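Exercise 7. Predict the structure of Phosphotransferase from Nilaparvata lugens.
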Amino acid sequence: MASTSQCARAPLKENIREHCSDMILSDEQLKQVMCKLNCAINEGLAKKSHDDAIVKCFVTYVQDLPTGKEKGKFLALDLGGTNFRVLLVTLAPGDFDMKSKIYAVPDSIMKGTGEKLFDHIAECLSDFVTEQGVKDISLPLGFTFSFPLSQEGLSRGILKTWTKGFDASGVVGENVVELLEQAIVRRGDVNIEVFAILNDTTGTLMSCAWKDHNCKIGVIVGTGCNACYVEKVENCEMYEGDQSKPEMIVNTEWGAFGDGGELKFIRTQYDCEVDKNSINPGRQLFEKMISGMYMGELARQIIVKFTKDKLLFCGKGSDTLMKKYAFETRFVSEIESDPAGVYDKCRGVLRNELGLTHASEQDAVNVRFICECVSRRAADLCSAGLATLIDKMPHYPTVTIGVDGSVYRYHPHFHNLMMAKIRQLCRPDCQFKLMLSQDGSGRGAALVAAVISKSGKQDNNGASSNVCKPSPKPACPPPSRSQC
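Solution. The predicted structure, encoded as tokens:
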């Protein structure tokens, strides 16, 4: 009877709200995040502080944005996992056609020699161009390579370490573009030149800029979280090339923001627990507060804590709930997709996915609120980062932000949350919009090859001539000025 009585007194949502208060960030806290991030970006851009900077701000060597008038056939290669894609993109002014094919990378090749890996990629390239009837045409290629790179030029990227199950020997420390080109030469049956190597944020920006010339920022909010933006070349101190072009796309690698303690003032016990149990403790702390890899686990950590404190499920959990990452990020999106005041999907997740058959209606109300806190904080932090970039750039009248990633695509409210919060945080005279990227990693890579091949023959006609005075650096809101 005591248990029944306890369940009848299930806590009200207001009680849960109080216990979730540390997951709800004020605008004042977000402005402190902006201040600290701005300082971290400036350190990454500066030559004297770059090596020790937390936010590395790698120059991408991409200085020309698409004009929408690009034309011709271009190849793209997108390698980032156990499958990779080859694409043929045909551009015409204002129009494009794209054909692609997915190829597998067998485990024996992933963990074999680098020569075998790139021979396999070259073989697939040969197969694709033969199938598309362009084998005898000289085609520029853009290479999206989603592994940690130290980029030293448009077509020079040094692999720092393998991830995602790859361990091909003889590649770490080498220029992967050169290894691919050597494999192409060994085959001797295709005529392909690798024009550029890039990451997915740059591809997203380029893909959106082809349609909307106001696109100056690219952001990924998916399994991971990162952003790039257009910076004045004079501020890119790590770049020692041609200074005649005014702009440079900078890959911030902002996922590492906070690794130096900058986010300690807003990190919670749940963030610390997720970080401690991750494969890279102490690293990518900003990303771990935003991205889809960790969003569900953050929610689970809160749910488990509240269950142990008898704030949920009468203190009785389930074996599944206690397993790490059992509460998947897709559950967060699914639960929040119900209309306000409806908890059908939440009850379904709790009972069918987590084995919480005893969950009450009030438990569903509370769990949905927890999910909302986790996703709103993620959207708010990402918005603070984007507002920082908008304020840092020249005062363009309108800024388009190219966005890709599963969280942004599939969470029912992420877009609206970001639109509202960016508006609250960035300079009031800026007009902005969020633009969903269509196949940024593929089409964007081809566009990089297109603009580079064009700029090699003529002056840069794609650079913006309407460059206004840069925005003043945001003042650090008290009391954190000294921390910045």
